[in-house]
Design brief:
The protein is an alpha+beta fold. The chain has a single domain, classed as 2-Layer Sandwich (YaeB-like fold). It has three helices and five strands. A five-stranded mixed β-sheet has the order 1-5-4-3-2. β4 and β5 form a beta hairpin. It is globular. The model has no long low-confidence stretch (mean pLDDT 97).
Length: 88
């Protein structure tokens, strides 16, 4: 299992995201846990980002909402969370 890390911005965005979407709280937690256990589990729909975000990876919370993260050998650092337009 990878060590979970977050940025201060992600922490603020996560709190705001859960307040705005309480129905997605459990789903978001499940995704974060699954990413730490197995980043490329097909249920995560993990994908490499392109362009200015090419160093990062993205995963689906739902069709409309994403989480952006940096993947290291022993850790996963969550960078951003929100709608497709907000995070990309």
């Amino acid at each position: 299992m990878l060590r979970l890390e977050t940025t201060p911005r992600f922490d603020r965005r996560l709190v705001a995201f859960v307040r705005a979407h309480p129905d997605l709280r459990e789903r978001t937690g499940t995704l974060i846990d699954r990413l730490a256990a197995s980043p490329f589990d097909p249920r995560n729909k993990t994908h490499k980002l392109e362009g200015r975000l090419r160093a990062f990876w993205g995963a689906y919370i739902t069709r409309s909402y994403r989480v952006v993260f940096l993947l290291g050998d022993e850790h996963i650092t969550f960078i951003n969370i929100g709608s497709h337009d907000e995070v990309y």
